[in-house]
Amino acid sequence: QVQLVESGGGLVQPGGSLRLSCAASGFTFRNYDMSWYRQAPGKERELVAGISSTGGSTNYADSVKGRFTISRDNGKNTMYLQMNSLKPEDTAVYYCNADSWVLYSRKNYWGQGTQVTVSS
User: Fold this and answer.
1) Residue 35: CA atoms inside 13 Å, Cβ hemisphere, count?
2) Cα(63)–Cα(99) distance, integer angstroms
3) Is 90 exceeded by the pLDDT of residue 102?
4) With 0-12 CB in 10 A as exposed, 13-18 as middle and 19+ as buried, what is 82?
């Protein structure tokens, strides 16, 4: 059974930091590109950051460049998002996503999300 379980969300003051984790199971994690998405109330889900299967390539939304860092540990089947200098506009539910092609079939999985609230 495929599972992506996010953790680490919470309430933080502007300028603070949080580290999100995404624990994967039920599939071969090291073969999948991974991403963090977020969805704020009344807005569409948007890509925050992505990392290739080996961790050798990363990409970020312009709004988080220089503040967020995505990483992964293929030995622990876990992806991370270090979020620094948080702003109120970072408030959203954060989701992890796994994506790969397996035997000519695309496999795409989502976690259940973790709430991040940035407020004083």
Assistant:
1) 19
2) 23
3) no
4) middle
